């Protein structure tokens, strides 16, 4: 193999490597290319995701506010219940006191 044949073979090998590399790039670019329709669809999905996150945040804020309102209402109801129970206990004690006073008065009038 003389020098000319060596240069030609080397040039052919380099050209084949270049062609193979270019073909591989073209294939890769062809299969990974994103069309405008796909980009539009991705943008629409991203917008829908943002809207869903906003709705979720609003729902969480509403739930927290409602939970606070209900816990406050429950606390007030518990306080009212306790006050009613205390009033009932006092009324029962007063009834017992009056009942025993009436019984003593009746006992005193019967004996006297």
Number of helical elements: 2
Instruction: Determine the fraction of residues in helical runs and give it as a percent range.
Output: over 70%
Q: Please write the string of helix (H) and strand (E) elements.
A: HH
Overall pLDDT metric: 92
Determine Rg (CA atoms, Å). 47 Å
* Number of structural units classed as domains: 2
Strand content: under 5%
Number of strands: 0
Secondary structure class reads mainly alpha
Describe the structure.
- The protein is rod-shaped.
- It contains two helices and no strands.
- The chain is mainly α.
- The chain folds into two domains: about 1-35; about 35-110.
- The longest helix is centred in the middle third of the chain and has 76 residues, at about 35-110.
Write the layout of secondary structure elements.
Layout: H1 3-32, H2 36-111
Q: Could you give a quick summary of the protein structure above?
A:
With 112 residues, the protein is an all-alpha fold.
Keywords for this structure?
112 residues; mainly alpha; 2 domains; 95% helix; 0% strand
